[in-house]
Amino acid sequence: MVTFNYNPDRKVFMATFSGRLDTLAVQKLSEIIQVNLPVKDGTSGDKIIFDMKDVEYISSSFIRICVNVAKQTGSGLFSITGCQPLIKKTFKISGLDEILNVS
Amino acid sequence: MGDPLVEKANDILDRAILATAEFHQFNQEETDRIVEAVFKAGFNARVKLAKMAQEETGMGKWEHKVIKNVLGTQLVYESIRNEKTVGVISSDPRTGITEIAQPLGPILAIIPVTNPTSTALFKILICLKSRNPVIISAHRGAARSCTETVRICYEAALQAGAPEDCIQIITSVSREFTNLLMAYPKIALILATGGTGLVKAAYSSGNPAIGVGPGNVPVFIDESADIPFAVKNIIFSKTFDNGTICASEQAIVVSDTIEQKVREEFEKQECYFLTPEEIRKVEKIAIVEESMSMSPFIVGRPASVIAQKAGIIVPEGTKILLAKLDGIGKDYPLSVEILAPILAFYSAPDYQTAVNICIDLNYLGGLGHSACIYANDEKRIMEFAEVMNAGRILVNTPTSQGAVGYFFNHLVPSLTLGCGTGGKNITTENITAKHLINIQRVSRRMPNELWFSHDQAAYYDETLGVDEIMKGYYKNH
After folding, report:
1. Are residues B231 and B328 in the same domain?
2. What ipTM was assigned to the predicted interfaces of this complex?
3. Is the domain of B234 the same as that of B360?
4. Do A94 and B18 touch (CB under 8 A)?
5. Are B114 and B339 in contact (CB under 8 A)?
6. Interface test with A, best of B13, B14, B18 (most A CBs within 10 A)
7. pTM to 2 decimal places
8. In chain B, what is the straight-line distance between the N-terminal and C-terminal CA atoms, in Å?
9. A60–B165: do the CB atoms touch at under 8 Å?
């Protein structure tokens, strides 16, 4: 459902998601993300990227997680990449695609 | 710290927008599973919710509110269950057009105090069927029963996999807050059912709206009608939930030739004709003089209670109070819409005058809503229908149960009745799930032979007129 990869040279923390991120799945994910992502105080300067290329569904609770992580990470350091068109549109409809740097 | 009202509105709409984002990913099967679960939960709570609504509002009869709840759940569900509302909904190889349904977004559903639980159930079902999150704005007089309705539906929806916040409720709202929400750009559509002021506010909000206001339903009993049948049906309808349905009969119009027969039939069937003095007493308690609108204290109350409030004595068991009036408008307060068992009564010297009275009543405050004729003369039925401005012209049918569909005809079951441009609506149809989708049309290239086989240079030749060009256009076709 999610794997983490850190590139210390580029200071990029990549979380690669897959499958259906529905409400139930996100309940489990929430804790995993909290534990694994370096977003405790937003001072590390690390970039965080959510790679969504294998995600086929996202719930509103996943979007909320993205918003929280983006806030903690700090301006310009969080982004979402690799969205399938349906997921891209989902972020668009949420009106949060710019805040979340969805591409 | 910002304006608390704005913050509250922001929070509600932010949630609704996220629900919209999630909901649009659902397929038809997933959507239908949610709708079925909500239908079942709402249906199973029909009696409890009916009793709650009656106790809370003091309006109507709980037994009739059960039937309204059945309409808002079972009958609405059966009418939409097989409808395609997600993805490709039609494809026509002849025209090359494929239609794709898309949700609208957050829908603000304003619920009237007269039909609170049934309207909430109905609006929730049609919104979910079209994958739109719904924000129920409950009348403060029915906040408790609406809150319970939403709780039951929301729990069932979540259990069936619906997005969080797909159903929200706001209660105890001020007009200021309702207006603020209605004007929010994030609202996709307002489904407004209520008084004239509220419906006008919805249309003025800048957001799309389907608003259903008053219906001052005239009923013409023609000389060809079966009078006992007509009177029986009118009583059945006007006493249904004590007249709270906006499509209920408001005025009976007859020609002088049958006036006595109709009066006798109403009296025989336990209705009471007020004397001129009693009419004035009822006017005082039934109508708010400044606004010429019905008093909330008599809405949905039985005839006996209204008579008592007016200080008049009527026979025990009186079903309806009838007031014979000589005119229409502000000098005749009982000629306006009253959602209670009070009927205006008019007699005219001839058929044409009688129909003209119906037109005046129709234009007094119920434009686009509903009208009714009892007749066994097809010519008169069609003549009447053509001069009324009403989305529904009901024939030999009780209007309360007739206009909402299913029971007495094949109109679509609905608790929101489109009133056309007369009522500032875009449609005269009974509103249902199909009105809550955007339809995208995928149009394949299919060159029109008529256009391409015609010499288009003709259009640039000023010496050629319409007849010559049209002749060339249709040549060999």
Report:
1. yes
2. 0.90
3. yes
4. yes
5. yes
6. B18
7. 0.94
8. 72
9. yes
